[in-house]
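Attaching the record inline, Q. Sequence:
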Amino acid sequence: MSEHAVEMEPGSTLERFTQGVQASMERATTLSELLRQLSTQMREALRDPQFLPGERWSYTDPHQLFQIHAGPSAPGNDTGPHDHGEHWVVYGVRRGALETTRYERLDDGSDADYAELRSVNQFVLGPGDVDAIEPWGIHNQKNATDQTAFDFVLRGNPNPTYLRNKFDLETRRVTRIGGPAA
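Structure, as predicted:
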């Protein structure tokens, strides 16, 4: 099943949601205020059964302020610890459940290839639940159930070359993904 760009239906919950995201990005004066507003908007939108137009799709704001991805997470799918670099992300679950773990770095970050992480919070996102991740926030999501989950991901600044990191808990190795072309 491939991802497709969604067509915006006039008056749809998705159109109202994207308009709300744009307005929040213009109004919010702090990152925490923005993430609170976006989380509230996503919770409200997820209550509408017509909100998500299909199982796997994407939408990019015409002003390149944000991007939305929606899709399935198969049983056993595990993202591994990662961050989204300098970009914030808001996750929502439409159906199913995702275990989420948040981490903190114990090292000083001076070695870009090495990170000591400690789990600081673990919780389950179920239908209608939302989780906002600040820039450089290290987290992991896993579908630990035997049912496919469907999630909805809102990410700020959809630059396709943005730098992000994956973390190996055993070797403490950091792998950089993306970033500007060399």
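The chain has one domain: 4-177. The chain has a mean pLDDT of 89.

More tomorrow.
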